[in-house]
Protein 1
Amino acid sequence: MSDLNISMEQRVTTADQGCSYTLVQLEGFIDAANYPKFEKALERLVESGRHQLVLDCRGVQYINSTGISG
């Protein structure tokens, strides 16, 4: 299977809503082989204080039950 690519971008919604979030864009495959990479990336975000995460899975071609459990 192919590798998993993860990109992250801090975003802020309109000023009246006052909400910021981190957009996590995923591309490729999420399976048992690369799940640790996915999990560590999310853990680092949470540990750095980013708790509002939006996962964009449009580029994910395959995800198994290991990836879904994250």
Protein 2
Amino acid sequence: MAARNRSACGASPSAQAALEKLYEAMSEVHNAIADRLGTSRPDIDISRTMLEPLQAPAPVATIPKNLRVCFYCFGFFQKQAFELDHIRPVNRPIHSSCDNTPEDINRYNDPTNLIAVCSSCNSSKSNSTIRAAWMNGRMQAREAGGLPGLETLLTA
């Protein structure tokens, strides 16, 4: 098998473009959560400076109608393969100086803190905070398993 072209950070060109799309989507999610909770942006460690070395803008075609895209690995899956993940993990206090209150627990289950992802990514993330390196690893694992994803829609 021929070696794939990778950036200095180890991401394939297709993964680079997918990461940029994810950054844009996650920024919208962050802002929606912050607006809903009346707080600053959630503590999700994905910043544009972390993704800049991986970016490679490319046009995107259409996603097949019978498939959905996982927000973490960008794989195509039937809708039955998805689970809801808490963007801000339940085990992380909303207020860094105290434990969660019952009201805080309700905030975790608010729709603005939930995202549909494939069961493999949900299990892998567990109660961790989303990190760009972890997402890159999820994309690489999916690609290594031969599962199609968003990169198949990117044109050269």
